Structures are given as C-alpha cells and as structure tokens.
Automatic annotation (TrEMBL):
This is TolC family protein. It comes from Szabonella alba. PROSITE patterns: PROKAR_LIPOPROTEIN. Keywords: Cell outer membrane, Membrane, Transmembrane, Transmembrane beta strand, Transport. GO terms for molecular function: efflux transmembrane transporter activity; porin activity.
C-alpha cells in the first residue's frame, strides 16, 4: 500500500511537470492574428453604433441596422470564421492528451495505466499554413459579406422610409381626385335634375366617382402597409423624403462582389495546392509519460513520428480533381462578376437618366392637362360642346400623371441608393459611418 501510494504521488508529480511544460505552449485562447487582428484594430478606434432618437432618416438607418436579423446573422458568421482560423492555426502549436486504460490478453494493455502524451508538429511542408490561409480567406469573405449586408439593410430601410412618404403623397393626389370627381358628379346630377343632360351622363359620372373612391381606399391600405413595414425595419411608422446626392454611378474594380470573387479564386487555388500535396509526409514530436499499476515510478519517453497518406481508395485523386474544377469555376465566376458589375452600373445610369426624362415629360403633360381641365369644364358646362366622357377622362389622366410623377421620383431614388452603394457613399449620407457594429467597423476598407 505504501509502495503504491508513492508510485501514485510520483506519477502525479511527473504528470504535473509534463503538463505544465506543454500547457505553457498550447493552453488558452491565442490572440487575434491576420485579418481578425486588422478588423479588431480598426473597430477599437470607433464608437459602437447606438439607437437613433429622432424620426429623420439617419435615426431610422441606425435603428434599422440594430434591428436587422440579416446583419446580425452575417456578424455571427464573421465571428465563427475567426474561430475557424484559430482552430486551423492551433495545429501549429503543441497539443496534450491524457488517457487511462487497461486490458487483458496477450495484445491487451494489461494492468491499469495512465498516459500523458504531447504532440508538436515539426514539418508538414506548409500544409497547415495553407489551411490557415484558406480559413483566413473565408474570414475575409464573410467580413465583406457582412459589409454587404449592412449596405443592403440601409437600402431596404431607406426605401421603406421613402415608401411611406410616397404613399402619403399618392393618397393626397387620390383624395384630390375624389373631391374633383364628387364635384363633377354633383354638377352633372344638378344638370340631370333640370333636364339639361341625359341620365347616361349621370351614371357615367357616378361610375367614375366610385372608381376614385376605390383608388383612395387602396392607397390608404398601401400607406398602412408601408408604415407597418417601416415599423418592422426601422422601429417607427413615420417616413419622409430621402435625398441622395447624384453621383457618377461607375462600377468599381474593388466592389464587394469583385473582392469576394477574387478571394474565392485564391482560396480555390490554395485548396488545389493542398490536394496536390496531400501525400507529402508530416513529422511530429511526441513526448510521453506513462505509469502502470504496480510500477515503481513513471516512465518517460520521446517519440518521433512520420505520417503520410499514400492511398485512400481514390479519394486523394478525386479531391485534387474537385479542387481543380473549383479553380476553373472560380475564374469563370470572377469574369462573370466583372461583367455583371459593369452591366449593373450601366443599367443604373440608364434608369436614372430615363427617370429624369420621364419626370420632365410628366411635368409638361401635367401642365397641359391642367390647362385643358378648365377648358373642358367650360365647354361641357357652359357651351355644351364637349362630351362628359372627355371631361372625365381628362380629369382622371391629370391625377394619374401626378401619381406617376411621384412613383417616378421614388424609382430614381431606388437607383441612386444602389449607386451610393457602388460609390461607398451611402453610409456617410445616412450618418452611420465611423461607428462599429457587433465589434466590426462599419467601413468596407478595413482589410
């Protein structure tokens, strides 16, 4: 009993010494490195994004980012990628394992034994470093995706904020139209009562009045839905006009999509290099301390191992072929992304120019229809030379063109918001730049 007690104490002491030596090199969470360190360094100089207290677009934009589930999800993906980099990098540092076991038979382990073993990678011809780089590239991709989700959320909130104002303006137009149609219906009813006009004219006037009532009803519903959407996205129901300064709206070679495509290509090339070198050996150094029941003392040793994957049932070749195909796909994706970026910029420029021209045309037509309103009224009511349908058609067209002008301005805003994203000026315009969110800077150039 005394002998076993001494043996146990010596085992514990030796185990403790070996553990302390290895834990000094492999214990704890290591400091940020690479992309994670660059992101953290920039975020440390920025205040955290806080809620907006006003009802302006800047406050709604802040609240929209804080409330956005897609932004939160993207931020979580960045944090998870940073941990994956740590996991890959951990293979470069010592590891420590403890095992307790016993067995029976000629090939068994025999009496109970306690074994403490460490491992240190000495050489793997750069495979682990390539794995770390692949993980770091994935972190960069997820970080850029986070920045893209921020821009998408800002665009969505800004459009929802503008949509409330658009529907409110449309409701004013439709109510004005309803009032005009009600006035005309009253005048026609008076003429019909005096026998100055036929009953079909009265029926036509009432039909147009009911159509105007439906338009008011539908617009009221659309306004309520727009307010609900803004409440969900930005935390308030009051919207307003969003002013985005016009810009060049040119495609950038360092856009988010282009950077992600380039990173995907580099990542696929590294994966191909790893697959082609998968059969290269790995050399590991393994100190070990072992104590078996009944032994007087602890046996120490140092092992040197060489591992190599020679055959895996065709998996090595298949993995290399898959990586080679991924490289080809990434190159094609890069070219397609560049083409899409150019086409998107051209479309935005075209849409803005066409929208401005359309507004100019609508302004001229609204002015003309406004002049013919009074003329047609006089011709129908005073002179009797104009048919009622002509008067009603002109009235409807006048208000419809006013509604189209409001919608055209909203469409131009949507294009300008996307242009601001391309030019990386949207955050500055909405007043959210210079802050950090979930520990990440609201700046796309942190890498």
């Amino acid at each position: 009993m005394i002998r076993q007690g001494r043996s146990s104490r010596r085992l514990i002491a030796a185990t403790g010494l070996l553990a302390l030596g290895l834990v000094a090199g492999c214990g704890g969470l290591r400091d940020a490195d690479g992309t994670e360190a660059a992101i953290a360094e920039q975020a440390a100089t920025m205040p955290g994004l806080t809620r907006g207290e006003g009802q302006d677009i800047g406050s709604v934009a802040r609240n929209g980012l804080l409330m956005s589930p897609s932004v939160r999800e993207s931020a979580s993906a960045v944090s998870a990628s940073a941990d994956e980099v740590r996991v890959s990098r951990a293979a470069l540092f010592p590891s420590l394992g403890l095992s307790l076991g016993a067995g029976t038979g000629d090939a068994g382990r025999g009496d109970p034994s306690l074994e403490l073993e460490g491992n240190q990678l000495l050489l793997d011809f750069g495979d682990t470093k390539r794995a770390v780089t692949v993980a770091d590239l994935e972190l960069q991709i997820n970080y850029i995706t986070f920045q893209k989700s921020v821009d998408d959320a800002l665009v969505e909130v800004a459009r929802a904020y503008d949509a409330v104002a658009v529907q409110a303006d449309l409701l004013k137009v439709r109510r004005t139209q309803l009032a005009a149609m009600r006035e005309l219906e009253t005048l026609v009813a008076e003429r019909a009562a005096s026998g100055a006009t036929a009953s079909p004219d009265l029926l036509e006037a009432r039909k147009r009045l009911q159509a105007a009532e439906f338009l008011v009803h539908d617009t009221e519903l659309a306004l309520a839905e727009a307010r609900d959407r803004l409440t969900r996205l930005g935390g308030q129901a009051r919207g307003g006009e969003v002013r985005i300064p016009p810009g060049a709206c040119a495609a950038r070679d360092d856009s988010d999509a282009m950077r992600i495509a380039r990173l995907r290509l580099v990542q696929s090339e590294l994966k191909l290099e790893r697959a082609e070198r998968a059969q290269l050996p790995r050399i590991l150094l393994s100190p070990v301390a072992r104590s078996q029941s009944g032994d007087d003392g602890v046996r120490l040793g140092l092992n040197l191992g060489v591992d190599s994957d020679l055959l895996q049932g065709g998996a090595l070749t298949a993995r290399a072929n898959a990586a080679r195909n991924s490289v080809g796909g990434a190159r094609a994706g890069l070219e397609a992304t560049k083409l899409d970026a150019d086409l998107e910029a051209r479309k935005l420029q075209r849409d803005i120019a066409a929208g401005n021209r359309r507004i100019e045309m609508l302004n001229r037509q609204i002015a003309l229809l406004g002049e013919t309103r009074s003329l047609y009224r006089s011709q129908y009511l005073d002179l009797g030379t104009r048919q009622l349908p002509d008067l009603l058609d002109n009235e409807e067209e006048y208000h419809n063109r006013r509604a189209e002008r409001i919608e055209a301005r909203s469409a131009i805003l949507a294009s300008r918001l996307q242009c601001a994203v391309l030019e990386r000026s949207l955050r500055q315009t909405l007043g959210v730049s210079g802050n950090s969110l979930y520990g990440f800077p609201l700046a796309p150039d942190a890498l």
